[in-house]
Write a structure and sequence with these properties.
Chain lengths: 566, 311
């Protein structure tokens, strides 16, 4: 192995790239897996596509994610909730990041093809053991207040993400930068802090991150929606992006009326990333009524929307001059059980509920068949590290036996919260489970809540369905949701064996080996039966034909730098 | 009359005081859960919550806090909205104004249409016009607003493509965007007011003094305008005043459906988002409008019908 400094010498290619080339040539990994992995290892997207093309003898062209220097001008009207936009680090709705994404930017950019590209970071290089990452920042980028963008900004952001006082979900993503304090909070969760020296400024435009364990997905994590880079004085200047919208992006916030409208206007000075087309982006809040969004689209009041809900897809197909885009994603509804509450502290009860689920029926009824069947492990077949476990079949008799062993021979009654935060398919999913569970003597009463109320208690409720968004890697969402003590661990799950297995999987770039390690991760999660997770869902967006270059992103991280109207 | 007005206003203020106490106890005390948790969120530590309670005076006795709140409210300080992170007054008044615009145009159409058709029908009880009005009125009033909103949208937005589908007014005031919400409200409510007017008019038309006036040889027009109308309008006046009250709460459905940024939608948002200060202010405004219109109805009733005296 070469010395640490040699590993970051300019032009050096990570040895894992050679391994991936061999795997691609031997057919051990797919083209998509090759592209995703070698870009994470620091190869640029054009170089990765070029290399894959040469190896496979095909001409591969990466999709455009940077501005196409197209004809300037135009107004895009976009239907979406205009929500509070205070601190990007604490965003818990993707919608909040859609407005912010045009003002503040990310270190990396994961495109609709799930390939991660440089953004504020010009390039990155991991050490051979994937425990040290250097990010080389672009020079010449200026904040909208005139300051230079530099390493201090990045160090500031990493430091506050890893500070539990910030309350950022990024704590789970960057858990390899944390250490235990040995203390627990009032809820009994271990309190963590950033390991001293986990992030350091190498020079004005280079930042180094040191991890306690190897992690491959660091560049991809840096496009997770709460990781937008804010100015180093963000907190000193009030800590509210909607009131002090200082950013490096091509747009400035011209108007922000919570619950009504947000207007973004192109900054007058040249954008470091090339010219963007749209002069103005107008985000219009049409409320929670799906019909209103559809009516606004039909009458030309909006050009597109955040998401076309499942219930309105058929109606939208009949609107003239509108096209519908669809993409399979790892978005899902997790009917999770909180282990801190009875009767869910008993694995037999959890397992019994899980065994009642008929995932195929769930997908067919609750999501009209649009999606992928799940196996209660929150990793989808579209994730590159997905390991296919044996099919999980419904077993009503088995569920009855387990219930009897758990002390419920005559069945039990539980109440399940649902907020329909992403659509009424959530309620339908619970209703299907209720029907199936009734056969085993489990009476599930459905507690339908307003979505805002749901989010007030989503992390502490005993039994509820939470809608989770897509992440390009399965390990990302597992780190966010199931590691012990992370803010978004809504199941109170605390299994050191799972944490260790996940840590082991996160640090392997070899697709086959990572998949093998994921078998253990998925098996532990399925055996512990902390959730019923029947399907992953496809998502839809309707777009007016006036709009050009609009491409649906599986995460719905809408970004309009390349969009034209007219 | 002055005594009557003073008594009615006094009763109105007393009602509002009682309602304000109930509202405060329900929304701003431990009865509805820990206010600190509502504001700071479920992830806040106990220490943070305690600091917040101290800073916002939540450690003081409930009644002290109540009178403090009432005092602030009376002087126009409605508190700070959690959701909007701004003074409630800044959020509330523009929304109330939007609903007032919607209400104005709704009543501007409902009152003349209902009165004209109601009076004409009442004058000719059993006529084709009367029967038609009855059937139409029953039909429109029995269709809830959310159903007629869908129906009108499907016709005028998706079918004919004549009208905008939502009424957010994000580009500034646009009267065209008011057409559909006003249409829904008018269609729902005019039948009720028209039928009340018709019933009142029909009753008056059978009264002895009307027959006497006709037999006396007075012109029919004079009989209607000078003798029948004033008495026939007593019931519709009360009904119309009550409709202002209905509009403030009934408008929630219409504002939600058409994404109209009015008071009703704000009330819904406040309740869904646990925004206590905003919810209290909205509720107090709704109560003020309710008792205010009731008081006006009582006073107006007395003016229209001198035989009635509240003692």
């Amino acid at each position: 192995m070469s010395s640490k400094d040699d590993q970051f010498s300019p032009g050096r290619v990570h040895p894992g790239v050679q391994t991936m080339q061999d795997q691609l040539l031997r057919g051990k990994c797919s083209r998509r897996e090759f592209l995703r992995t070698v870009t994470l290892l620091g190869l640029s997207a054009p170089a990765a596509y070029g290399l894959a093309g040469r190896l496979l003898g095909e001409k591969l062209v990466p999709p455009a994610v940077t501005p196409a220097h197209a004809q300037s001008g135009g107004l895009l009207r976009f239907g979406m909730f205009v929500q509070e936009m205070t601190d990007p680090a604490t965003f818990d709705w993707v919608e909040r990041s859609v407005v912010a994404r045009h003002i503040v930017e990310y270190m990396t950019l994961t495109g609709p093809d799930n390939v991660t590209r440089p953004y504020l970071a010009e390039r990155w290089q991991p050490s051979d053991d994937l425990k040290t990452w250097r990010f080389f920042l672009r020079k010449g980028i200026k904040w909208s207040n005139g300051d230079d963008f530099n390493a201090d900004d990045v160090v500031f952001n990493f430091t506050r993400w890893c500070d539990p006082k910030t309350g950022s979900s990024n704590l789970g993503l960057f858990s390899a930068m944390l250490e235990d304090t040995g203390q627990n909070d009032s809820a009994g969760k271990p309190i963590k802090r950033m390991t001293p020296g986990a992030v350091r400024k190498v020079d004005d435009h280079t930042v180094e991150i040191r991890l306690n364990s190897p992690v491959l997905s660091i560049p991809e994590n840096l496009y997770n929606y709460p990781t937008a880079i804010v100015h180093r004085n963000f907190e000193r200047d009030g800590g509210d992006l909607s009131k002090n919208p200082v950013g490096t992006g091509p747009y400035m916030l011209d108007l922000f009326k919570l619950g009504e409208v947000a207007v973004l206007k192109k900054r007058p000075e040249p954008y470091w990333g090339g010219d963007v087309s749209l002069d103005e982006i107008r985000i219009i809040d049409l409320g929670a009524d799906e019909g209103a969004t559809l009516a606004a689209l039909a009458s030309g009041q909006i050009d597109s929307m955040y998401e076309l809900k499942l219930t309105t897809v058929e109606a939208a197909k009949n609107i003239p001059n509108v096209s519908i885009q669809q993409v399979a994603t790892a978005k899902t509804g997790v009917i999770r059980m909180n282990l801190a509450h009875k009767p869910f502290d008993d694995k037999r009860v959890r397992r019994a509920i899980q065994m009642c689920c008929d995932s195929d029926r769930q997908l067919k009824i609750a999501h009209k068949g649009f999606g992928i069947v799940g196996e209660h492990v929150h990793v989808a077949s579209i994730h590159p590290e997905y390991f296919k476990l044996p099919k999980f079949n419904q077993d009503i008799e088995g569920a009855k036996k387990l219930l009897a062993k758990a002390g419920y021979p005559n069945g039990l009654s539980v109440s399940c919260n649902v907020g329909n935060t992403d659509g009424t398919w959530e309620q339908d999913s619970i209703a299907v489970l209720k029907q199936d569970a009734a056969k085993a003597g489990i009476d599930i009463s459905i507690n339908v809540m307003p979505s805002a109320k749901y989010w007030d208690e989503w992390a502490t409720a005993p039994f509820s369905l939470t809608s989770w968004t897509h992440r390009p890697l399965g390990t990302m969402v597992l780190s966010l949701a199931y590691r012990a003590g992370v803010p978004w661990n809504e199941t109170s799950y605390n299994n050191p064996a799972f944490d260790r297995a996940l840590t082991a999987a996160e640090g392997v770039f070899d697709v086959e080996k990572r998949r093998a390690k994921m078998e253990k991760v998925e098996q532990i999660l399925q055996d512990d039966a902390i959730m019923v997770q029947p399907f992953f869902r496809s998502v839809f967006v309707a777009v007016s034909n006036r709009v050009r270059n609009f491409s649906i992103h599986p995460t719905l991280y809408h970004r309009f730098h390349n969009v034209r109207v007219g | 009359m002055l005594t009557l007005i003073l008594r009615r206003v006094g009763f109105m203020l007393f009602t509002m005081l009682v309602v304000s106490l109930v509202l405060f106890l329900l929304l701003d005390t431990e009865l509805a859960g820990d206010p600190a948790t509502r504001v700071l969120g479920q992830f806040a530590s106990e220490h943070q919550k305690e600091l917040w309670r101290e800073e916002h005076g939540y450690n003081r006795p409930v009644m002290v806090r109540y009178f403090d709140w009432v005092g602030s409210f009376v002087t126009g300080d409605l508190g700070i909205s959690n959701r909007y992170r701004a003074p409630v007054a800044e959020v509330l008044w523009p929304r109330l104004w939007n609903t007032a615009i919607l209400g104005f145009w709704t009543f501007a159409l409902i009152i003349p249409i209902s009165l004209v058709f109601g009076i004409l029908s009442g004058m000719r009880e059993g006529s084709v016009l009367d029967r038609s009005l009855s059937v139409t009125g029953i039909l429109t009033t029995s269709v809830p607003e959310f159903a007629s909103a869908v129906f009108f949208s499907s016709v005028f937005v998706f079918g004919l493509q004549w009208l905008p589908g939502t009424s957010g007014m994000t580009d500034g005031f646009d009267p065209v965007q008011l057409i559909l919400p006003v249409m829904v409200l008018v269609v729902y409510d005019f039948g009720y007011v028209a039928r009340m007017t018709r019933a009142s008019m029909a009753e008056v038309m059978t009264a002895q003094y009307i027959r006497t006036a006709v037999l006396k040889g007075l012109a029919y027009k004079t009989v209607i305008l000078r003798h029948a109308l004033r008495n026939a309008l007593i019931a519709p006046f009360t009904v119309i005043m009550l409709q202002i009250n209905w509009l403030l709460s009934g408008v929630i459905v219409v504002e939600f459906y058409f994404a109209y940024k009015g008071f009703g939608a704000l009330l819904l948002e406040a309740s869904l988002n646990n925004d206590v200060a905003l919810l209290e202010a909205c509720a107090m405004i709704a109560v003020a409008v309710a008792v205010g219109t009731q008081t006006l109805a009582d006073i107006g009733y007395t003016i229209l019908n001198p035989r009635i005296r509240f003692s």
